[in-house]
């Protein structure tokens, strides 16, 4: 049963939780204790808060719920990448990917169910926009993944986060900011801001706003083209904010010392992979503290795009390098389980009833 005015505990910042605890007659230090249970110990319901006095727990239960996503599928790729499919209480499937390397464990998290941006080459776009994720649903992807890691690779911790899963993070601005605030809280997951990257297809006004936040994640821009003519077609958002406006906003972005902007460049055969593109790319980005991640297009069903040949990929990358741009080739990770960039589509949407395997919305 949905109680009006009920909130999710993990939608609250620490300050908001503390205000609530005090309002309910609890001592302020209880807020810290509760926050730790929710965000560090990754509790899945209020019942797990055993060392909180029962009267406070009961009072709390009249105002907040504590819910968790259900992990209903984990796929492990040959290269060690793991894709988690998580179910929301309203029966949607979202995806999150764990990407191990020697010194890091990165997680790629989703910010929306589906996406409104309709980039022509992306599998998530084909779902259309369904809804924004709540703050708690964003942070819980990290907690459920960390919980899984504790089982399968004890001792390993998630060190880096990229908002590059399903959805456009800057379309879900408030919840994304709040999730970063929670995930960097030293009483919780305690992730470093410099190890968090928010990726955008180029929502200029939101990007400007992000630059004014106290929080300071890295930014990544999905550029993917070097002319408006091409970008208009493959990323319709370009018709609203074209390359010139987007790059002006990036140039104005208050970048911290020693940080760089990442540009993602999905390589599409015959569309944006010529040596002329490489030269234009270098010109567009000249003078910017940045690096370019070249991502050879990952196939998904029903798409007419093609991945360039290894030779074409090499030729493009070499040309970019010749122009003096730092560039990295992103070898597809987890493409054998459709976990690579642009392949997240929440396939096998939860059939009705499957959601009952998890916790019902009122159970928290
Ligand atoms: N909406 C945000 C976050 C998604 S990030 C953004 O656009 O930045 C997903 C990244 O994967 C983007 O850089 C996108 O350009 C890239 N991408 C999408 N589809 C792809 C595909 N099929 N192959 C390779 N990269 C893809």
Task: Give me a quick take on this structure.
The chain has 364 residues and is an alpha/beta fold.
* Ligands present: S-adenosyl-L-homocysteine
User: How many structural domains in the coordinates?
Assistant: 2
Major sheet: size, sense and barrel closure?
10 strands, mixed
Read across the widest sheet, the strand sequence of neighbours is 3-4-5-6-9-10-11-12-13-14
Helix content estimate: 25-40%
Helical/strand content category = alpha/beta
Number of helices: 10
Write the CATH architecture name of the largest domain: Alpha-Beta Barrel
In the CATH scheme, what's the topology name of the largest domain? TIM Barrel
What's the multimeric state?
single chain
CATH superfamily of the largest domain: Aldolase class I
Radius of gyration: 21 Å
Number of DSSP E strands: 14
Poorly predicted runs: 348-364
Distance between the termini: 11 Å
Structure write-up:
It contains ten helices and 14 strands. It has 364 residues and is an alpha/beta fold. It has two domains: 59 residues, Orthogonal Bundle (DNA polymerase, domain 1); 277 residues, Aldolase class I (TIM Barrel, Alpha-Beta Barrel), CATH 3.20.20. The strands form three sheets. A ten-stranded mixed beta sheet has the order 3-4-5-6-9-10-11-12-13-14, covered by helices on one side. The protein is elongated, with a radius of gyration of 21 Å. The C terminus is likely disordered. S-adenosyl-L-homocysteine binds next to strand 10 and strand 12.
């Amino acid at each position: 049963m949905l109680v009006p005015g009920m909130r999710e505990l993990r939608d609250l910042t620490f300050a908001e939780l503390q205000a609530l605890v005090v309002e309910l007659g609890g001592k302020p230090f209880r807020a810290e204790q509760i926050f730790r249970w929710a965000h560090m110990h990754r509790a899945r319901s209020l019942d797990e808060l055993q060392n909180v006095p029962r009267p406070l727990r009961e009072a709390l239960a009249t105002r907040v719920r504590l819910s968790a996503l259900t992990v209903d599928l984990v796929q492990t790729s040959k290269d060690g990448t793991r894709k988690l499919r998580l179910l929301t209480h309203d029966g949607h499937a979202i995806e999150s990917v764990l990407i191990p390397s020697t010194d890091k464990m990165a997680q790629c998290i989703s910010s929306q169910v589906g996406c409104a941006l309709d980039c022509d080459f992306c599998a998530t776009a084909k779902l259309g926009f369904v809804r924004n994720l709540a703050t708690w649903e964003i942070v819980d992807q990290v907690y459920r993944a960390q919980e899984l890691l504790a089982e399968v690779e004890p001792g390993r911790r998630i060190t880096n986060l990229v908002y590059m899963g399903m959805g456009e993070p800057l379309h879900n601005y408030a919840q994304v900011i709040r999730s970063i605030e929670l995930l960097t809280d030293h009483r919780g997951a305690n992730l470093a801001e410099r190890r968090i990257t928010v990726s955008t297809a180029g929502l200029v006004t939101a990007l400007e706003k992000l630059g004014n936040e106290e929080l300071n994640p890295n930014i990544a821009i999905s550029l993917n083209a070097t002319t408006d003519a091409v970008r208009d077609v493959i990323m319709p958002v370009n018709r609203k904010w074209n390359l010139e406006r987007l790059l002006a906003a990036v140039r104005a972005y208050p970048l911290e010392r020693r940080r760089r902007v990442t540009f993602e460049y999905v390589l599409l055969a015959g569309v944006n992979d010529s040596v002329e593109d490489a030269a234009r790319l270098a010109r567009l980005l000249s003078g910017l503290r940045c690096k370019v991640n070249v991502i050879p297009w990952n196939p998904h069903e029903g798409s007419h795009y093609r991945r360039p040949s290894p030779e074409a990929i090499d030729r493009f990358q070499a040309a970019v390098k010749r122009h003096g741009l730092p560039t990295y080739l992103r070898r597809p990770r987890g493409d054998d389980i459709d976990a690579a960039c642009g392949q997240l589509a929440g396939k096998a949407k939860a059939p009705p009833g499957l959601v009952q395997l998890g916790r019902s919305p009122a159970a928290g």
